[in-house]
Write a structure and sequence with these properties.
single chain, 2 strands, 54% helix, 139 residues
């Protein structure tokens, strides 16, 4: 019998909490791990100009299971180990998350319904190189 109960391509949040606790070899409270999961989603949203919603313990993710396993779980393990002051373990987990996040940005196309429209201002082009800020003009 599998430890994780998945439905199609979606993984539920409680199974993710269990996976984070198992991998970190800790037994953190569900509410604490849930906050770490939502922190991971926020980081993904910022890095990818997305608007994936926060989740609750009884819900499912809007991301496919393979990305939950490669992004959310390592990030959650990193947070758990950070609370435990296990520097090497949380550094390794965060490194894994960041490497996987780079791959996610290259390979995964954010569905239109989760795109952050405010991050894509049509017609906006920075002129920072043409008109540098005042402190840089003096050099």
């Amino acid at each position: 019998m599998s430890l994780f109960l998945t439905r199609g391509e979606r993984m539920n949040v409680l199974d993710t909490v269990i996976a984070i606790n198992e991998l970190s070899d800790e037994q953190e409270d569900n509410a604490i791990v849930l906050n770490f999961i939502n922190d991971a989603l926020a980081r993904i949203n910022i890095e990818c100009d997305a608007n994936y919603p926060s989740v609750d313990i009884e819900g499912e993710f809007e991301l496919p299971e393979k990305w939950i396993r490669t992004l959310i779980i390592p990030f959650g393990v990193g947070r758990v180990k950070q609370r435990d002051s296990s520097q090497f373990e949380y550094s390794d987990a965060y490194r894994e998350f960041l490497e996987n996040l780079d791959e996610f940005k290259m390979k995964y196309e954010i569905p239109e319904e989760f795109m952050d429209e405010s991050a894509h201002l049509d017609g906006y082009e920075s002129d920072i190189y043409k008109n540098p800020a005042l402190p840089w003009q003096r050099w």
